[in-house]
Amino acid sequence: MLTLLTSAQMRHADQFTIVNKPIASIDLMEKAARAFVQCFIRDEFDAGKSIAIFCGKGNNGGDGLAIAHLLLVNGYENVKVYIVNFSAKQTADFAINLQRLDESRCKKAIINQPADLKHIKPDLIIDAILGSGLNKPLTGDYAELARAINKLNKKVYAVDVPTGFFAEGSLTSNYNGVKAYKTICFQRPKINFFFPESALATEKYEVANIELDEDFIQKQDTDFYLTEEKDIQKILKKRKLFSHKGTYGHALIIAGNTNTMGAALLASMACLHTGAGLTTACIPESGLTALNTALPEVMALLRVEYMRIEHPAKYQCIAIGPGLGIDAENERLLESLITANRELVIDADALNILAERPDLIKKLPKHSILTPHLKEFDRLFGEHDTWWERVQTAKAQARQLQIVIVLKNQYTFVCLPDGKVYINPTGNPAMAQGGMGDVLTGTISGLVAQNYPAADAVIAGCYIHGQTGDELAKEQYVVTASQLALNIAKEIKVLTTR
Ligand SMILES: NC(=O)C1=CN([C@@H]2O[C@H](COP(=O)(O)OP(=O)(O)OC[C@H]3O[C@@H](n4cnc5c(N)ncnc54)[C@H](O)[C@@H]3O)[C@@H](O)[C@H]2O)[C@@H](O)CC1
């Protein structure tokens, strides 16, 4: 798990490295500039392009000056630095790099006001005006300058963070900073890169390693972690010799209705391909033929019969919700399962039923797993203006109710009962189609059935689900839910044998 740090924590990591490595602050800046240039050159190898580097007078600007020098050294002829002179304050490292640049043949100009930008027509822009030192929203000349840079409509590479972008905390939808094509940030991604509103500030990001003290960084107290492939490899177990279907658990998927039987099929299919020993789908009678035809390995239990079962102890996992419908009978069923105090995987319509029954939310069995998307989440826990606020609520509810909340998005937030948030890095827009959530529920259920603890099942389930989609998207414009379900077993094999 990669710890994700706030800007203040990153500053501590910088300082710790400077004192303990030891390395002079100016040399660390040089290292950052080198790391940036290495990434930049990989993308933009045409040394003939004209590059405008906008530098503030803090350390972000200091990086920009060092980058200018290194680009010249690397044969980029048309580099020009624009010093943004809106404040008299400058840092010591900025001053040293300015002196170094004065001694080189780099072209330089001063921007005293945003209007000075009028006649600039570069091919590329590097934004090093304000970095992680941002302490208030952009106003006045800075906001004006950001607007003018955006109006140039050029490819912008941001150093560490785009000017005006807060690395953590609530992001508003009226972002007024520099809009970057790519942000090359140092050592760690910023927490806010995983929040949807960041799309207004940067299309993508790349992390450049500047050799800060990793031990120190990993030990920082944080609520945010980024899941890595090696974490999943540690979680997943190989199939055992002499094992049989009973070894891998029995999952009950309560899903589907007259017009939504597909959801039950998709969740059951994913559960099967994730490796549950037995999968039973609890469905309405109208879905029997479909189930028996499409998924011969899955057993059927008619919903009316299930109503009579009082002790669902024979299942290692019970999932409820995909395509379920929100009628009174399903509400009674959900209530009886919650009252039986068995941990559940709760999705889709079961979440919608819960949203109408706050009394049931309070009684949710500990270690239950909720998998809402944005709208389902807000129905459950109230409207939120920003994703940051939404994730704060998810963290608080997961802790208070001692449940796992899987807040689904491009980067899914897995909120655990201990208050920690694990951000899932896999998945892609080709997966944005109906049925994907049903497949995720089935994947998580398959792992719970195999006796993985709730947190492991969810962290691994989200990763496998996204990774399977990423592999398919390499060759496809869109990935359908059933294709994804069918490919899960292949991806788990890759993860357990790599
Ligand atoms: N040794 C270090 O600390 C390292 C720092 N690095 C760079 O340093 C950056 C951080 O540098 P700084 O802390 O000097 O800060 P910045 O260069 O981001 O900002 C400079 C100053 O701008 C002012 N400011 C903040 N918000 C403003 C606003 N809305 N309008 C106008 N002025 C505003 C603040 O007073 C701040 O000190 C990182 O993003 C990174 O690029 C890298 O060189 C790696 C090493």
From TrEMBL:
Reactions it catalyzes: (6S)-NADPHX + ADP = AMP + phosphate + NADPH + H(+); (6R)-NADPHX = (6S)-NADPHX; (6S)-NADHX + ADP = AMP + phosphate + NADH + H(+); (6R)-NADHX = (6S)-NADHX
Gene3D superfamilies in UniProt: 3.40.1190.20, YjeF N-terminal domain
Cofactor section: Mg(2+); K(+)
Alphabetical UniProt keywords: ATP-binding, Isomerase, Lyase, Metal-binding, Multifunctional enzyme, NAD, NADP, Nucleotide-binding, Potassium
Binding of K(+), residues: 60, 127, 163
Gene Ontology molecular function terms on file: ADP-dependent NAD(P)H-hydrate dehydratase activity; ATP binding; metal ion binding; NAD(P)HX epimerase activity
Binding-site residues for (6S)-NADPHX, renumbered to this chain: 59-63, 131-137, 142, 160, 263, 323, 373, 438
The keyword RNA-binding is assigned to this record: no
Domain YjeF N-terminal stretches: 10-218
HAMAP family in the cross-refs: NADHX_dehydratase (MF_01965), NADHX_epimerase (MF_01966)
Subunit structure: Homotetramer.
Name of the protein described by the UniProt record: Bifunctional NAD(P)H-hydrate repair enzyme
Organism: Pedobacter soli
Record lineage: Bacteria, Pseudomonadati, Bacteroidota, Sphingobacteriia, Sphingobacteriales
UniProt gene name: nnrD
